[in-house]
Amino acid sequence: MQVSPDNQSERRAFLINALSGECVTYGELLARLNAVPATALTLCQPASSRDALLQVSAAIAAGFDLVLFDRSLAASEVLALGFHPSQVNQPVLVGQSATVTREGLHKLVTGGSHARLGLFTSGSTGLPKLVWQGVANLARAVRVSPRNEEAVWALAYSPTHVAGIQVYLQALANGCTLVDVFGLDRVSVLAALERHKVTHISATPSFYRLLLPMDRPLAHVRSVTLGGESADAWLLQKLAILFPQARLHNVYASTEAGTLLVADGDVFAISPGLEGKVVLRDGRIHVHHSLLGEFVQTGDLPQEGAKSTKSDEWYDTGDVIEVVKAEPLRFRIVARQRDWVNVGGSKVNPHEVEAVLGEHPDVAQVRVLGRKNSVLGQILCAEVVCRNPAVTEAELRSFAASRLQPHKIPRSIRFVDNIARTRTGKVSRQ
Amino acid sequence: MTKIKSPIPNSQLLAIINEVRANKGQSPLANLIGNERLREDLEFESLDLAELTVRIEERFGVDVFADGLVHTVGEVEAKLACK
After folding, report:
1. pLDDT above 90: residue A15
2. Which of A49, A225, A29, A57 is nearest to A141 (CA)?
3. Tell me: the pLDDT tens digits for A358-373?
4. A33: three-class secondary structure by DSSP
5. Cα(A62)–Cα(A421) distance, rounded to whole angstroms?
6. Which of A208, A375, A376 should we substitute to test contact with B (largest number of B Cβ atoms within 10 Å)?
7. How far apart are CA A128 and CA A334, in angstroms?
8. Which residues from chain B sit within 8 angstroms of residue A396, using beta carbons?
9. 3-state DSSP call for residue B32?
10. What percent helix, strand, coil does chain A show, rounded to 5?
């Protein structure tokens, strides 16, 4: 399509790389989506946020299914998920769809697209699972309003995860600019927030904790959302000082179900419209299957008929709550029941890490557990029974590093004579 | 540099910092300068900082990041001195 240089909305930045300053405008995004012949990826392990979001945009525009792999996954991890690394990042020709316009993009996000995204979630046992989410379900929390048009969003989440996709959809639906700060250090993040006058941030408590101590308050930030881990009152207090003009939102979401609860502070309520679909039962949060994405057997390619909907009517999130007030219902999330370890908002399945360390020829027995950590909420530690006393922690770490993403590598490995049978006794929650 | 007469010998903290560095393939430091910043100068990322706290806690029983993040090696030393 022809991009008119006069069109201000098309000259607006869609995505700015905070480090390099490299920018993709909405006009460039549209030109790319309308390019002929149209090729795209259906299995994408992006090298950058730019790569990821251009591919997701293409999938949304043309209405095809796209599986997103984390940038940091090793080839062996991709294999373990059931995909051959050589299949990944192979362009395929996709049918030419109708020309996409700026307004059309907005409509696609808010219900017009048939695309599905395949995202990986930590399974309760074994390996991460592939979950298919329709764009409409992912965009459920997206709010479109002329008031939102001038917003500048920080992209602080991985664009291959549900939270990053939600920030992207919110920005795309409103024609806002995204500033990519994912994975940057504290100084670069603070500089980018100031330079681009970021107004909206959605990130994990660990991300915000790492911005502290603060140099000076950032008054241009109007909205601060926390999700992925529980946030304590101490952090919320500090954020109120760092972002004096911002409303603080605490969000509860999952890869399976997207955003479900929103709260001010640490007290949650069930979002309007979701009553009866998100319920508290036996002190835990249960979600109705109609809100869940479709689970498929790991490794299934995105094709009709290969999907299987989760058959149980209710999904037990395993997240334990404490009722603050019965009428209207208000509650706090006090613990997560599953074995997952939440490392700075990234959930790790300790069974997966145990399986990898167990492949080392000198490891006889291994247990991986989470330990409370003031920097990242939780951190992975391992206890190892070793056959060979010469094996060092550094050696096991480098063994793990070639097979696992950085946040899945135990940061403390202790050599022990034997390993206690139960995990629960030692797992540190809270 | 923060001048602190620390009862914790620098060498123990140095050893811990060097363990973290070794685990990420960095060369060991010969000594610690108090105003060296953990993130900018020592190039510790969030996972490295988390590991540093675990190791300090194991050795000294002090959570140096409990009440907010510290910037410099000297500030870590100060926390250990206040134990």
Report:
1. yes
2. A225
3. 899 999 888 898 998 9
4. helix
5. 51
6. A375
7. 24
8. none
9. coil
10. 25, 30, 45
